[in-house]
Amino acid sequence: MDQDYTAPHKALQKLKAARKLCHTVYLYGATGYGKTELVKQYLSNRRYGYLSCADGDWDAAAFPAPKTLEEGGPCSVVVIDDLHRLKNKEKQRDILSLMKRKDVWLILISRSQVPPWLLTAYMQTGFLVIPEEDLRLKEAEAAALLARFGAGATQKELARMVEDSHGNAYTLGLAARLMAGGARPGPELCQAVSRLFSDYLESAVFVEMEPELLEFLMQVSVVDEFDLPLAEMITGSRHAARLLKEAAEAGNFLTEQEGVYRLRPILLESLRRRMAVSCGESAIREYSYNAGLYYEMQGRIPKALAMYERSGYTSRIRELLIRNARCNPGNGHYFELRKYYLQLKPAEIEGNVILMAAMSMLYSLLMQPEESEAWYEKLAAYEKTVRGGEKQEAKSRLAYLDIALPHRGSRGMLHILKHIPSVLLERDSLPELSVTSNLPSTMNGGKDFCHWSKYDRELAVSAGKLVAGILGRYGKGLVNVALGESLYEKGGDTYEVLSLLTRGEMETLGGGMAEIAFAAVGIQIRLYLLNGDMETAQMQLASFEKRVRQENALQLLPNMEALKCRLALYRGDREAVRRFMETAPDEDQEFCVLERYRYLTKVRCYLSTGDHLKALALLERMRYYARQCQRTYIHMETELLTAVTRYRQGEEWKEAFQAVLREACGYRFLRFISEEGPAVNDLLRQVKKECQVDEQLDSEWMQRLLQESERMAVRYPAYLKRQLSATLDFSENALAILRLQAEGLSVTKIAQRLSMKSETVKYHISENYRKLGVSGKADAMLTARSLNLL
């Protein structure tokens, strides 16, 4: 018996419960979780029969003889180990028969989940399953294990060790031994444990595998995850489906979710190490190339390039970079592939129209306007030296850059559009232009068109056809959607706005683009939200998501998730916000201007959790971007959220807030402020008198802003409220008072009902309001209901 093993409490409790009832136990987990040792320790003081399916030389005669009712006594205990290796049908039937016996307590141990041949018995008898999750050591158990070796760790170090090892007893034991020799928790210890465990897998797992299965797993290990078609492409095997089934049955080291398979990280590392030794570099390159080819066929360019780089197929990399550069930044992968573009030598770029234009666009996205303009000038000079089709291509790329370069803003855009050479339009040779950059907006999408909003109706008539014609498919529905958005921002008639947006969305169905439809849907959702119709807003978004998936416009999904998160913030749904934050881009790791909608959603999430410094840091990045790329709308939104943040920090906020009001009033924009009503309402109240005498603020506009913000604050009291106190933070008396308030009782009646003094009730009410982050009864009731306190 391994005296260094520490049995997990939860698994032990389940074994005890099963023993009392003589219920069959099925215990499974990957290598190293101490499955067999757990059972041996638990049964150390009683007799039991032990059989291993790895031996293959036992039969039913090894089972205990049946007892009669007269004999009585405790159940006979039979442990059958390594069940994942049992393929013999006859022995499977023997085990099924043994499970039916009332005089036998059967414990089955396996690396894999319940196999198909046991499922019927499982459904009929409901035997107890102890999964891998129950075998994982918790922090207290890991601490006890370390103590046995005379090793210790801080609480933070211990938590990290348990997290990194997934509670695997064997790897924690390895770490304990190394720490007893002087090692300390950290990357070096983690690597040492990984190497030792990899050696253990070689001896304990790989030697048991069929050679065909082991070879298959090594081949697919060139990627981190794969589906069946990718596995077939990498290996060239027609038996990939069968081998995946065998892998799943052979051990609990392969997971599958929605058709995507993943190998455990430690096993993946071991397979790659073994492959490097047994197959060599040339084989790894071959399988990596196969994976790259599959990714390329699927349009997953970043992954394809990573595989081609691994395979050393550099010519393919350049071809893919050129192909990607033909797409607009919203559909291409300029930022993700910047490493590959920036690795190109000037000689590889110069002389290629597509790459020169791509470098100009990339540097603009990286907010390096000087480098962007330098490549633009090189392309312009090159255009003068060539003829024929290449000259035509260069002209079209220059026209495209004139319109699309982010750092140039949108001033003078109409002049540029009117002077695009007609030959480019007639031959349909102008590269595709995305107005929205996958954001739910046309006015604040690829470029900022706030200044157009001042003349929205006139421009829709005078320039609408021209713009729509130049943009081609991206122009379908654009004029109606853009006009509808402009009117919405200025508080236009609801029916007219909805009509324009609906018509625009319908126009996209006739050969248009889902990006324009997303802008229409996004504004409609904001309109429903403004009118208190959260249910319709959510239904609209869910319905549109189905269309996006059907049309394979998957580039819209990240910003759709951000829009879902914004709805969750209004609902006070903390769990949905947490899920969004888990997948949101990390601005500290890298700042990508194409993620601006998600960044501004993150700012709101930070405000809802009280992370004010994080909010300010991200807002400062957004402020720099808005200034560099002439983004008026984002500048106003950033300044508004900054004022809210500083207000909550108790710092100076009025000057910045009033400046936003003046700028917004200049455009007659209401909605981007009033939609933040729950967060800005207190600020508006405090500056109300000053605004009434501010000559730069229109009184009618200001009055409407106050009214709309107040309505939003009443409808969505939990919006952007700091992480509220959990139920445990409220005493029983505090909750009782809150619930009696909800029933409509006065302070006096509540005091009588609870046998308290009125002063005590008032104190609890005041504390409840403080914890809920509200200032009145109505808001308190709404917020408490959103937190399921009532």
Written account of the structure:
The protein is mainly alpha-helical and 790 residues long. It folds into five domains: 9-135, 3-Layer(aba) Sandwich (Rossmann fold); 139-204, no CATH class; 349-543, Serine Threonine Protein Phosphatase 5, Tetratricopeptide repeat (Alpha Horseshoe), CATH 1.25.40; 584-715; 727-786, Winged helix-like DNA-binding domain superfamily/Winged helix DNA-binding domain (Arc Repressor Mutant, subunit A). It has 43 helices and eight strands. The chain has a five-stranded parallel β-sheet with strand order 2-3-4-1-5. It has a three-stranded antiparallel β-sheet with strand order 6-8-7. Strand 3, helix 3 and strand 4 form a beta-alpha-beta unit. The chain starts with 8 loop residues before the first helix and ends with a helix. It comes from Bianquea renquensis. One of its GO terms (biological process) is regulation of DNA-templated transcription. Keywords: DNA-binding, Transcription, Transcription regulation. Residues 723-788 form the HTH luxR-type domain. GO terms for molecular function: DNA binding.
